[in-house]
Protein 1
Amino acid sequence: MIVNVAMLTLTNQIRLVSEPMTNEAPDGTGRGGATSRREQLLSAAAELFARYGFHGVGIDDIGAAVGISGPALYRHFRGKDAMLGEMLTGISERLLHGGRARTVNTPDPITALEALVAWHVEFALTNSALITVHLRDLDSLAEPDRHRVRELQRGYVEVWVETLLQCRPDLSEHTARASAHAVLGLINSTPHSARLDPTRMSELLHRMAMNALLVERREGDEADGA
Amino acid sequence: MIVNVAMLTLTNQIRLVSEPMTNEAPDGTGRGGATSRREQLLSAAAELFARYGFHGVGIDDIGAAVGISGPALYRHFRGKDAMLGEMLTGISERLLHGGRARTVNTPDPITALEALVAWHVEFALTNSALITVHLRDLDSLAEPDRHRVRELQRGYVEVWVETLLQCRPDLSEHTARASAHAVLGLINSTPHSARLDPTRMSELLHRMAMNALLVERREGDEADGA
DNA sequence: CAATATAGTTAATGATCGTTAACGTAGCGA
DNA sequence: TCGCTACGTTAACGATCATTAACTATATTG
């Protein structure tokens, strides 16, 4: 339904002729250095989910994207839902831990905020498919995973809110949270954007984000209390 | 699959008991003043598509959301695809025409940019479901509609780029386009955001957007030429 | 009042899709 | 060499879902 039929059959042909039959890590858990089948599948699925949405991608499409066909996927994942779950919890954990790591032991709040912005910009530019899926298909997740992802997301936003409040004591917590969401939206727009080269794009997003966050506001912002 | 079963059956009951059987506009094209069935269906579908994605919503879910059941939808639309098509072309046209209308006959470029920001902020706050669908399900569109929507989107971004370039002659066109996308991402983040009350939210987004756009840059931005 | 258009209903159909079953094979350790 | 495991394959199953068919009721109109 998605890729052309030529590619479906061709990849199979190619696999039989030229592929050295996965000589990387012996175990299926992907502990080895080279990219295991699991990682190949997750990466391909992320790309497909980003473009067509979770429900718009079939198991056969995912398999075909890495040169295997259809149900072979069940040798590596418990199912299609499990792939999405692993994908989203993975990205959420990486974001949260990266954000935390970059804000502790900083000399002053502004430096911490700069580090946070730099971290998210770098992540979004490097993993744009994951960013798209994480914005798009969270509600396609089954309950145990969805709750976990939401908690991780909340924690990540909390890192932003705390850092921002230290830079801007004039803001209410509500306003700081809304500002954080807005700037994350700005940075996460990269997948849809006409991109410059990575260096310029990174600089541009960084500067826009900092200036959006550090605007001086006039009187009466935190009047709404709780 | 989406709404609970109780609601599905209950709405049917309620319809039989209390609904005055659509006494608004006589024609099905929705020319009348009150909301016609078509508009009810479009609105409900937008909400559902926004939350679950186009492929995640069934025809029965859409019908149930307005108190009719399943295939009754085909009395108003040629199919599910046609609903999405109408939804996305509609929103894209409204955005483009609104943007154009607000930038002609402005005294100076900065005022035009303010008007553009105000327009998009107002639109995004008022139609957050449509914004989400339009970011999310464009690729679920069949070919004639998709092309049209993309052209309208491109035109809208072009309005932003032209206005921004008048305010910021120091920017290259590439940089202006990337900036426009980024600010649209900032404003479009509203659906995912912990919202303040509309007035404060609107002010916050407006101020953040203007400051993101009107940052003074240091030397050497437009050096990349074409 | 008959006729017709409008807007519903339920049942059936056909395609798609996730998942499982049954089976094959290459590599490897005892 | 004998099995065991990892990793594929294709075929079948069952559910879901968009769409169509067949039918009903209400309201307007000549």
Protein 2
Amino acid sequence: MQNLQKIKDKLQQYKIKPSLIRIKVLEYLNSTREHPNAEKIYKKLLKEIPTLSRTSVYNTLKLLTQKGAIKEIMIEEGEIRYDGINERHAHFKCVKCNNLYDLKLKCKSCLEETDLNKVKVMDEHIYIVGICKKCLKKGE
Amino acid sequence: MQNLQKIKDKLQQYKIKPSLIRIKVLEYLNSTREHPNAEKIYKKLLKEIPTLSRTSVYNTLKLLTQKGAIKEIMIEEGEIRYDGINERHAHFKCVKCNNLYDLKLKCKSCLEETDLNKVKVMDEHIYIVGICKKCLKKGE
DNA sequence: TGTAAAATTGTAATGATTACAAAATTGAAG
DNA sequence: CTTCAATTTTGTAATCATTACAATTTTACA
Ligand SMILES: [Mn+2]
Ligand SMILES: [Mn+2]
Ligand SMILES: [Zn+2]
Ligand SMILES: [Zn+2]
């Protein structure tokens, strides 16, 4: 399909050679908004690539992150989640169901320009922790 | 000194019984803006409390966090830093010197109210990753 | 084909955090 | 001052996601 070409193009755009695992990992991360961790990605791709190793998933995630094609999200200790959506947005982590939702940002920057114009900004992370709509309903 | 009383009051305010270790940990976190991790806090307090155990520091930090007296900051994998300053603010993490600086926020919320008025917000984290002024100068 | 570079794999190590049970301390009651 | 249960603190062992490393496989190109 032409979706494959899009993934390959994106990899090339970030100067990453398009191997099978890299394509599959990026394809998965671009197709979902669930922000999976390495283990979830491994389990998912194992169905398509039976020889896949956990190490390869970790290696690939590290590479994609370093090249800027995906983003690491660190919210809870001992678990890195990954986000393949590159548009600037914030996150909402529900402490009940553990889901991680995307949130829109209404302003370009919440920070004082005077603080920022002296430093080199490489990355920005904004997230809220709380209880989501669904879980609030469940608990009356 | 009367600083001690302030710390005790703050602990009581968050419904935490003021034991020696709790007082010392909170006192340290309220006196610094360096956002230390558990190990740094342990090393620092060991000078004053020679019988101190790492476990006690971890226990105390967990308790203070759960009660809301301090905040965990998770930016780099495998290292939780702690912040005793309760006023809402953002952070800047320098990837060169590894320092974590405080930043002022210019707006009350960067998020769409429509997204937030259906959920329960418990915590908010905003941070920038980049290279600080000092390190930029060093590298010409 | 031959071969060096790159990618992938499996196993072992790492290290911050946590679990757990024992020891010490506290504080109220007698 | 004692007693004793609750709380706090401690030391050791376990956890577990991630990383290091070396071996194997695959790729790309002459
Ligand atoms: Mn996202
Ligand atoms: Mn801070
Ligand atoms: Zn939820
Ligand atoms: Zn710096």
Protein 3
Amino acid sequence: MKKKTTIYDIAKELNVTVSTVSRALNGFSTISDATKKAVLETAKKMNYSPNKLASSLKSGKTQTIGVIVPSTQVHFFASVIHSIEQTLKNNGYRVLLYQSNESLENEINGVKTLLEAQVDGIIASMSLETEDVSHFKSVIKQNKPLILFDRTHKDIEAPSVTINDFDAGYMATQHLVDKGYRNIGFVTTSHQIKIFNDRYEGFKQALKDNNLSIAEENIVFGGLSIKDGRFGAGKLLRSTNLPDAIIAGDDFTALGVIKKLKENNLVPPHIGVMGFANETFSAFITPSLSTIDQQANKMGAECAKMFLKMVKKKNPYDNIEHIILEPVLVERQSTDKN
Amino acid sequence: MKKKTTIYDIAKELNVTVSTVSRALNGFSTISDATKKAVLETAKKMNYSPNKLASSLKSGKTQTIGVIVPSTQVHFFASVIHSIEQTLKNNGYRVLLYQSNESLENEINGVKTLLEAQVDGIIASMSLETEDVSHFKSVIKQNKPLILFDRTHKDIEAPSVTINDFDAGYMATQHLVDKGYRNIGFVTTSHQIKIFNDRYEGFKQALKDNNLSIAEENIVFGGLSIKDGRFGAGKLLRSTNLPDAIIAGDDFTALGVIKKLKENNLVPPHIGVMGFANETFSAFITPSLSTIDQQANKMGAECAKMFLKMVKKKNPYDNIEHIILEPVLVERQSTDKN
DNA sequence: CTGAAAGCGCTAACAG
DNA sequence: CTGTTAGCGCTTTCAG
């Protein structure tokens, strides 16, 4: 195994100094076309590949951004990562990935690891466990760009990119009302996470604006999963005030609701069902599920752009922006009551 | 913004030298408990965070692995990445992510970027466009571990982790035969990719072993997508020799097939349908889709383990292993003919 | 237009 | 048990 060639090797080869080689390689103007050409040629001939580690050590910039997400197995996060990487790669940045697996401990380790790797910034979505956020504050303290998306936290003074979940809830509800449903139930999580809360608030407001009352008995707080959906639907089916539509906290829960309804011969859209997230499967189940799209790709792109903007400023936290994307209603069969 | 504290700062603080500090920090035994304790304490007090860049430059190891996949938006790849990152993080490695987007040019850029970042190895699945593989050979030439998964290439002499796609095809076919189907059609891609070809070969062998003939008119070569599935099924429905079961090249195509069949009141399992990949949606559509699971998580874990094994050897390519995982049959409603 | 030399932060051989 | 010192590969003043 021959040693990798460095700028020293190519300097020696050409009887110039490393500074000359460095300049030529970096396309500085203060260099004669002749030597520049020579350098470039021998570089290629000697199969030179720059060691970015060395320049990073010198410059203090790694051209690398850290991304922390709960799990790439969740389609939403995979999509966000997709567009972050796409956007940033075109701007000369690399992506260092870290999964928290919804564990605070992992998340803390994540920012530590990324910081030690000297990333130029971090884009993250918090784990469900996270309450104390001092680990995130440490990146702000270093004056490195930190951008939070989707799952943010009120104690962190950093830019964020989120969906307007109040509108999402409102939109889902209004859609059902528009379709003629009047007695709308809600199956969601008791977890005190902002986004779920906001959706619920939007739901309530929409009902109020339409002069519809909230049937407290038709609100089920549990978890979010297919199983929870079945459970929630089961509870509503036993209600003395059977709802004519059900909104679920996410698409998986909605799927559970649909399954339970079908088993009871109350196939949507006879009873309307709405979810949140627009998972891949939602278009393909029967009946196909109306839902609210979370704009994952746009969210990723916005995070990336935000980072690029921040990284240019001497003080990234000069004037903190919070981007709130509008959710998008996806109408499908499960609410298509005519 | 105060400068970051280095081992020099903490050395000065304690009136010792950097070597002492370095030793203490790295837990060397040749250091007195007293100084070690002092160092650790002041390190914490001064909020010290090591600059891994510097040690990497020195050691030539970055503790970082590069991962190249077509797209994280494809659930299979997202799952593989998930387990790669999970496994490697527990062994002190970070993951640098690069998406090729099925473009050869991007892929070439990917290995260049990762190599310049001095990754300790690369795990990759090739883009559909890739024919010439010299870019991958360059990583082997550097004697750095390269592991290919799922989409490999015969010209690359590197370890690989794949699924036995012949068995996958065989298994799918045998399952249909076991369920009583006798006249089995196939809707797949004309693209000459090994994995698709292997599945088709497995299909043919299984028919032969069961003394069933291949109805050439019931083999459709096109693309792989919902649309292609509908198209393929349409063609088979017009066949003079209507099949009683259809295998599709992947789950999306199978979904298209199912949709078409349902429109023609030939709801599976009346006509049996099988897919490949076990996408998330496959369990949730109606009827739920029988399919062959590709073992994404296991594949990722195996890639990671292979890397760890290789990175330990002085010559990683000493004795190249090819791990072939067995696919797993997932029986669901679409083939449940009784 | 080019050279000399210092230094980014850390490790490790060598010396005591 | 601790200190000295020479780099890792590259960038970047400061001189010429």
